[in-house]
Each structure stands twice: as structure tokens, then as C-alpha cells.
Amino acid sequence: MKFNILRISKNQSTLIVSTTIFLTLLLATTVVLTNNFDTSYAQQQNTTKTGTFNYTQTDASGNPDWINTGNWSLAGIDSESPTFEAVISMVKPNGSAAHEHEVSDLAVSGQPSNENGSIIIEGTTTITMREGPVTEEPTIITLNETTISVYFDPEKIDDHFGNQSITGSVIQ
Asked: pTM for the whole thing?
């Protein structure tokens, strides 16, 4: 008995050719999509950092005036529109006058810069104050691997945080 494995019908031949073409196209599409996905993912990776504030604000004489604590989150650091949210609790060193401020609505002006391993983001934020929210508050955020510094222009908020940055730690 003789077997001829090369002998196939026309229908089988058409099926084999169609399947081969389909698999080739599927493989080529997968390679193209994978390459495009990897490239776009690397370029659009939205990094999020979070942390805490623990800062002692001083008066004009250098004496402790306020203790600033709280949490912050900076998302989409490498995107065109990062978001920054924070809650800053303030209390006098003797435990009196406790209150808090919420920071939100970061609007970035220009491109973030990178200086000495720190990302510097300039723009405006909204800060809740006793009299109501202060919008378009000029804000500078400086972030590196371990620390954050947030500076609010003192003019629009009546020197509430002094003329100094609130600093904190990066947790993640």
C-alpha cells in the first residue's frame, strides 16, 4: 500500500492556503500592534507619586509658627496634564488654631523641566481658604525621588504659608 501525502484535493489546498495567509496576516498584525503598543506605552506612561507633608513653617524671626502635615498625590507626571491633589493640615506649635487646606486643579504652564534630577512643574492650583477657594494660585512643585517641595505665591493667599515652600516625603 502506497500513501501519497502530497496528494490533496482542491478544497484542501484552498483551505491550507487561506489558513496560511490568515495566520501570516494575524502574526504581522500582532507584531505591528505589539511594537506600537510598547512604543506608545513607554511614551505615555503616567507615573503617580504620593507622599506626606511634615514641615514646620517659621515666622520672620525664624521661630516655629505653624506645623504643616498632610498627604499629597501627583499623577500623570510625564503627561501634558498632570494632576496634583493635597490636603495640608496646619496647627500652631502649642496645638491651637488647627485647620486644613485642600489643593487641587493643577493647570501647568509650559513644559515641566528637569534640573539636577528634580522635576519642576510650574502652574496654578486652587487652594481652599477660610474665605473660600483661591483659584489660579501660582504654584511651583519640585519633585525628586525622595522629597517634594511645593511653593505657593504668598501674594494671593495673604502670606498664609509664609514665603517658603512646604516640603514633604515621597512614599511611592
From this structure: 0.72
